Amino acid sequence: MRIINLLLLGFIPLFLLAGCSPDVREINSIALVTITGVDYDEQSKKFIITLYCNYTPSASKDMPEKTLEWIASSSGESILDAARNIRSRAGKQLIWQHDKFFIVGESAARHKFYEIIDYFNRSREIRMSGYLAISKGKASDILQLKSESGDLITNEIEGKVRNEHLWGKSINIELKDIVNYYTDPNRGFVIGKMNISKPINSDRSVMILSGGSVINKGKLVGWMSADDVLSVHMLMGKKKWRYLEFVQSVPFKSEKVSLMMKILKSKTHYKSINGRPALTIDVKLKGTLIDTSGPILLTANRTLEQLEDAAEKVVQQQLKVSLSHFQRDMKVDVLGFSDFLRQYHPNVWKRTRQNWMEVYPTLPVTITVSASIPNLGMSQVLGGGQ
Predict the structure, then answer these.
(1) Residue 343: which residues within 8 A CB-CB, separation 6 or more?
(2) Which neighbouring-strand residues pair with 251?
(3) Whole-angstrom distance, CA of residue 192 vs CA of residue 226
(4) What are residue 259's DSSP bridge partners?
(5) pLDDT band at 6 (very low <50, low <70, confident <90, very high)
(6) Which of 15, 125, 297, 373 could in theory staple to 96 by disulfide, Cβ–Cβ 3.0 to 4.6 A?
(7) pLDDT band at 2 (very low <50, low <70, confident <90, very high)
């Protein structure tokens, strides 16, 4: 009898095990939203949501399992309304948890950017580690393009994001960082810019991730060139220093030399000039010789030192041009000088925060650049001449 009781006790947990539930979602019944595009129609005052989805159809002997894409748009009085309305077209259950990229159209960024970021931040379905960029034109036009590589559009954009550190002229920021920037009313910031362009020797339009979108006071206020984005990286992109490298062309001895540059250090210092706040930014770079338009004898007296000086002057001039554009043309604190003063010089910030928008455009900023070229490589004569 004791053995029977033990057996019965052993079988009881089996009855408690979960069986098939009607709530279980089969893989072929869902569609993963991997890119969300948001546009805004000024005439109708409606939001337009465009979704790029990936799904797996039911496999059979004649059709092996593979990933397909589905693109659909819907409008609504609000972002939530537009997102819900699109479900009337969806033959599968939409899952947002795997969404990696968000594209906001130009009109939406200029008029409703705050509402869009607020919605993304509040939605439990949205992953805050996803990247957001602004398209020059409509986001829906970007999502209707076919990928240049023939891969899924999601994979192609992800590759463009990974390639950022290899040239430094695009900028990609996660949603959580954008939300954090919004809490500071005294500064602007730069996020990614997407454009449609026709490459050389191509008759089809493709998606380009280059340059930046300038956000200030909760909306898009302008565009930033690729060179200016590189300046932003050099002057304040601390998180990417250890990975970022860029090509710098340097005029030298009637030739043109290409250097692969890396950022070793970029440090901002405060100083006072006649009682007024001023800043100094020291940038330290390391370069590697890549190629030249003609022969250069590296072992000649002071040749390498002169090349380092030439590289410093070229980079310093580019940074000065960009900084002047940020301060005097855009009048937007994209480099976060206000953050620096508030964190490291709070007394100075207390005196200037009330009229920061008047102080910033005329704030004296000195940029110094030091460049070293520690490696000559195997050849002592760059370019192969004597």
Answers:
(1) none
(2) 256
(3) 11
(4) 248, 289
(5) low
(6) 125
(7) low
Residues 6+ apart with CB under 8 A from 206: 145, 148, 196, 197, 198, 199
pTM of the model: 0.85
Three-class SS of 247-315: EEEEEECCEEEEEEEEEEEEEEEEEEECCEEEEEEEEEEEEEEEEECCCEECCCCCHHHHHHHHHHHHH
Q: Cα 7 vs. chain centroid, distance in angstroms?
A: 62
- Tokens (6 digits) for 336: 């976060």
381: which strand partners? 297
d(CA 38, CA 101): 11
Distances (CA, A) of 40 to 12, 29, 49, 120, 137: 58, 30, 9, 16, 11
Closest CA to 292 of 275, 310, 265: 310
The contacts of residue 118 (CB under 8 Å, 6+ apart) are none
User: Distances in Å between the alpha carbon of 234 and those of 88, 146, 189, 338?
Assistant: 47, 33, 15, 18
User: What amino acid occupies position 15?
Assistant: F
Look at residue 47 and give its three-state secondary structure: strand
Q: Are strands 131-135 and 173-174 parallel, antiparallel or unpaired?
A: antiparallel
Q: What is the mean pLDDT of residues 272-296?
A: 90
Looking up tokens 């593979």, which residue turns up?
66
Q: What's the CA gap between 272 and 354, in Å, rounded?
A: 19
DSSP secondary structure letter of residue 28: G
Query: For residue 222, which amino acid is it?
Result: G
Cβ proximity of 32 and 45 under 8 Å: no
pLDDT (tens digit per residue) in 124-144 = 888 899 999 999 999 999 999
Cα dist. 242→165, 355, 371 in Å? 9, 36, 16
| Residue-level pLDDT at 137 | 92
> Rounded to whole angstroms, how far apart are CA atoms 39 and 112?
9
Q: At 188, which amino acid appears?
A: G
How many other CB atoms are found less than 10 A from the CB of residue 156?
18
